[in-house]
Amino acid sequence: MNEIDLISGLKSKNLAAINYFVNNNQQFVFILCIRMLNDKEVAEELTQDVLIKCIEKINLFEGKSKLKTWVYKIAHNEVLNYFRKNKLNTTELNDETINYNEDNSLMKELNQKDLKAAIQLIFNKLPVDQKELLTLFYLEDLSLKEIEQVTGTSPSNIRVKLYRARDNFRTFLSKNDVNLLNQLRYG
Predict the structure, then answer these.
(1) Are residues 181 and 113 in the same domain?
(2) Domain count within the chain
């Protein structure tokens, strides 16, 4: 189903279009929510809320962006609203956030646990806005313009924040760990 037919179907509350929309969007909305919140139950609830809100508010979609970008924007706002309503604190990175001994690699520090778990551990320690940007840019392959539409942040500010997020992430990896990551990624 192309985007124009999908939007038309959603506006007319066509069940097939609604099912198609939910099936094609729930996973990436959930990924964004879980990465920002680190709470599966809340992420599941917010994912449902976002999808329902998108279906209910489809008439407000102006077509100035892709439908997926608009859905991300709603998900972004819902997560931020959740943080505001629940007065949750975000984690700021500092040297004490992860007990990291420079004499040992991250892999030794984690007793050789799965690399994915190690990466997730570090990722979870990033501030919410950095997790969101890394998710949108690297995992969902959104362009800077699309991220701007989602977050309301200028492309130059997005570049700076992405740089900081990558730098914060890299801070907790020894040179050997970076080489291991590169081998796994490009090897």
Answers:
(1) yes
(2) 2
The torsion region of residue 38 among left (phi > 0), alpha (psi -120 to 50) and beta comes to left
Q: What pLDDT was estimated at residue 94?
A: 41
Domain containing 121: what range?
A: 106-186
Residues 72-110: tens digit of each pLDDT:
989 988 988 898 888 755 444 343 444 434 444 444 444
Q: Which range has highest mean pLDDT (83-92, 106-115, 132-141)?
A: 132-141
Identify the CA nearest to 37 among candidates 154, 160, 114, 123: 123
Residue 100 in domain: no
Question: Which residues are CB-neighbours of 161 under 8 A, at least 6 positions away?
Answer: 129, 130, 133, 153
Q: Which of 61, 66, 45, 54 is nearest to 21 (CA)?
A: 54
For residue 127, the domain's CATH number is 1.10.10.10
Instruction: Write the CA distances from 44 to 30, 39, 60, integer angstroms.
Output: 6, 9, 24
Using the 3D structure, point to which of 51, 86, 121 is the last residue of a domain: 86
Asked whether residue 101 is domain-assigned, the answer is no
Is 135 a member of any domain?
yes
3-state DSSP assignment of residue 87: coil
Q: How many CA within 13 A on the CB side of residue 60?
A: 9
User: Is the pTM higher than 0.90?
Assistant: no
